[in-house]
Design goal:
Elements lengths: L2 E5 L4 H12 L3 E6 L2 H13 L5 E4 L5 H15 L4 E4 L14 H29 L2 E6 L12 H21 L4 E7 L22 H16 L4 H13 L6 E3 L2 H12 L2 H11 L4
Length: 274
C-alpha cells in the first residue's frame, strides 16, 4: 500500500488517479480549491470504503499547506508519493495580456508545485525513500503561440524538477515529470477567449482556438490519462520524463532532433496559423 498525496484532485486527471488508487487499497490524501468537487469525491471514496484525507485548500496558502502536511503525517505516519497536479491555464496574445492576472498563473503553477513538493521532502529524506511527481505539459519543452505565460510556468516546473533531482536523489527520493499534450477536459475551453475586435492577433487566435478545440475532441480522456499517470506513481524508479499520449510522445521526440526551422513550420501548420 502506498500513501499518495495529490493536489488538484477535485476534477479531471487528479480525481481519476485518486479513485483508482483508492480502489487498489492505497491511501489518498489531497486538496483542491474546488470545495464542491472535494465533497463529491469524498462521498465517492467513502462509498468505496476508502478513508481518504481530503480538504479544501488553495495551493498558494503556505501555512495551510504546512498544516495539511502535518495532518497527513499524523494520520499515515509517512508519504510515499507526492503528485503535484495543480495548475491553471493562461491564454492570449502576449502584447495584450494583463500581467497582474498572469502573476496568479505563475504563483499557482510554479510556486504551488514548489510548495507541495518542498513540504514533504524532509520526511522523505529522513526515511530515505519517496517519489516527487509534477504534472508539466508538452509546452514545458515546446512553447505554443498565445500560451506564453502558461508555457513559461511549465518550463519553470520542468527546471524546478530537473534541478531538484540532483539534491534529493542521494537521499533515495526519485523525481518525475508527467508531460501530457492534450486531455479532453474543459481546461482549455475555460481560457479560450478571442481578442477584442480590431486586435491584430484576432484572426490567428480564432484559427488557433478552432484547431485546439478540434484536437481536444480526439485527446485522451481523464480516465485514460490517469491510467498512464498511475504507471509512473507505481514505478519504483520512474523515468524522469513521461509523455502520456501519442501527440506528446511524437512532438517531444521530433523536438530532440529536428532543426528549429522545421519544428516551427510543423507547429504552426499543426495549429493552423502558419
Amino acid at each position: 500500500m502506498q500513501v499518495v498525496v495529490i493536489t488538484g484532485l477535485a476534477q479531471g486527471m487528479g480525481r481519476e488517479v485518486a479513485l483508482r488508487l483508492a480502489a487498489a487499497g492505497d491511501a489518498v490524501a489531497g486538496f483542491d480549491v474546488d470545495a464542491g468537487g472535494i465533497e463529491s469525491l469524498r462521498g465517492e471514496l467513502q462509498a468505496r470504503g476508502s478513508d481518504a484525507l481530503l480538504t479544501t485548500l488553495d495551493v498558494c496558502d503556505r501555512p495551510g499547506i504546512a498544516a495539511f502536511r502535518d495532518e497527513v503525517l499524523r494520520k499515515y505516519g509517512h508519504v510515499d508519493t507526492v503528485l503535484s497536479n495543480v495548475g491553471i491555464g493562461f491564454f492570449g496574445p502576449f502584447e495584450e495580456l494583463d500581467l497582474d492576472k498572469a502573476s496568479r498563473c505563475l504563483e499557482i503553477n510554479v510556486m504551488g508545485t514548489a510548495a507541495i513538493l518542498q513540504a514533504f521532502v524532509p520526511s522523505m529524506r529522513e526515511r530515505r525513500t519517496g517519489k516527487l511527481i509534477a504534472v508539466s505539459s508538452l509546452v514545458g519543452q515546446i512553447p505554443f503561440p498565445f500560451e506564453s505565460i502558461y508555457s513559461a510556468t511549465k518550463f519553470a516546473v520542468e527546471g524546478l524538477v530537473l534541478s531538484l533531482r540532483y539534491e534529493v536523489e542521494p537521499f533515495g527520493i526519485r523525481v518525475a515529470l508527467i508531460q501530457p499534450a492534450q486531455v479532453s477536459t474543459r481546461f482549455a475551453a475555460k481560457i479560450h477567449i478571442l481578442p477584442r475586435e480590431g486586435s491584430p492577433y484576432r484572426e490567428r487566435v480564432r484559427r488557433f482556438i478552432a484547431r485546439d478545440e478540434k484536437l481536444i475532441q480526439t485527446a485522451l480522456d481523464p480516465a485514460a490519462a490517469a491510467e498512464q499517470i498511475l504507471r509512473v506513481v507505481r514505478a519504483p524508479q520512474p523515468k524522469l520524463h513521461n509523455p502520456i499520449d501519442p501527440q506528446s510522445r511524437l512532438f517531444l521526440a521530433l523536438n530532440r532532433f529536428l532543426p528549429q526551422r522545421v519544428r516551427d513550420r510543423l507547429l504552426l501548420r499543426q495549429m493552423d496559423i502558419g
